[in-house]
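Cross-check.
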Amino acid sequence: MLPSIKRSLAVAALGAFLKAEAAHISSRTKPIAIPKSAPNDAGVPLDSFVSYSFEFSSWPDFAGNLSHPNAFSYNLMSNLGKLQGSMPIARVGGNTQDIAIFDESLETSIVGIIRPNISADYPTIITIGPSYFESYKTMPEGTRFVHGFNMGANSSAARAATWASVSHACKAIGSDLLFWEYGNEPDLFTASGYRPDDWAEADYVTEWLNGTTAIEEATKAACPELAGTKFMAPSFAGIGVNDYFRLDPVEVFKQGLDEKQNIGLIASHNYMGVSTNPGITLQGTLMNHSSVLAKADEQIGVKDGIKALGAALAPNVPFVMGEHNSLARQGRPGLSNGFGAALWGVDWNTYLASQNLTRSHMHQGTNYRYQSWQPIETNLTARGTKPPYYGNVAVAAFMHKPSSESELKISSLPSSSIYATQYAAHVDDTLARILLVDLNTYNTTADNNYTTPFARPVEKYSFQLPSDCKGEAQVQRLLANGSDAITGITWDGYSYNYELDEGKPVRMENVTCGESVKVDGKGMISVEVPWSSAAIVSLDC
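Predicted model, tokenized:
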């Protein structure tokens, strides 16, 4: 084991936390009562709730190809599939989706040119060839895909190339194809210069209907068994119309976006803020449940507005987060790549599930600051597992379903506050798990905004369980040195670091796991949670 990893994991050992901080434990005086059955307004997440959105230009880096598959990505995806009981879905799209031009004669999978004056994070001139689609054949069995087509390019030649790519995509993906997507964040097309300033909802709807018809016809011709594949749409970046976001997501449905009823998922995008904007902080922006509520409420408003249209779309179409992460423009170092961002991800994604925002595609790309893992070695970023992945693992564990027939319901407990949240998971109408997330920042490299560094506090929570809960409850913890840690992170005593076993779980002997708490004769349990950490309590009810 690398010395730095061993040292940081040793600091994170739970036994040391609770022993050393005994004098700093504060207790929630009122027990939190949890009913046997989930409340009527509990969220019902889809299978594969923890899923990903991969930047189109980065997909070959993450997946590899048939001759050089990316075993690291394979292992990390497999971990999540085992934990939640269904494999993550890979949506391949993002900004570069609407830049990529297909060239049948290109012998390599992708050629990209980065123009730093436009973006230093991804190429803005992109050509893909037939071998690009090999990357869809490298993921673990059970992985399903959403493939994004270029809507941004507006020339007849570019559009003809897009239709020509359909046969290669459908043949490569085959029965693992879940949805198509046509266009990424078209509400930004005028801001990006892809469309004129007077381009409005009616223009978008017309283009989308014409383009999706062309894709459907090309699919039917090349892959008749996939005819009828539906779309994920509209994949807008914004919530309301302003000088930047120029299309209203509710209005496009009013104007007939789903008139053919070929939309299988209503998808929206979200970021908590923009990485380059002033005033963004860990405690104020990410590790802050009020921020989570505000952003989620915006999405819920769009969901409710679309659903209220009734006949304007097919019934019971799920609303999902098709692309999102902490901070737009690929994140900010020191915020998006630290353990605090992992804890934000746990709170944010679980709250989404509790509100029937039914699947979460966390976005990532090569060298992005908010990525869950860096798939390859570059001159900017070392290959490795990043802190947000550990948050994905914790959410997957909380969302576990024993079978696809089981019904999972997620509810946010009313005791949640700005810096501490609690959730309940009911499986088949029985309380199965409790999630506790402490969002108080506790830093390791600074003085925590105090003139004298303070010992790490621990919060004690008590729960009144249903009367048939008994025995011992098992506790699994998401731990690190503090909210600013970028290494030494564990879930339930396991590390998923690349350098240990290429992302497979490795048990760390110096980190406590196998912890349990006793349910007393009155159905009460108590659980201690250090600042800047999370815990899942699994029950026998």
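The first strand starts at residue 25 and ends at 27. Residues 209 and 257 are 7 Å apart (CA to CA). Passed to J.P. for a second look.
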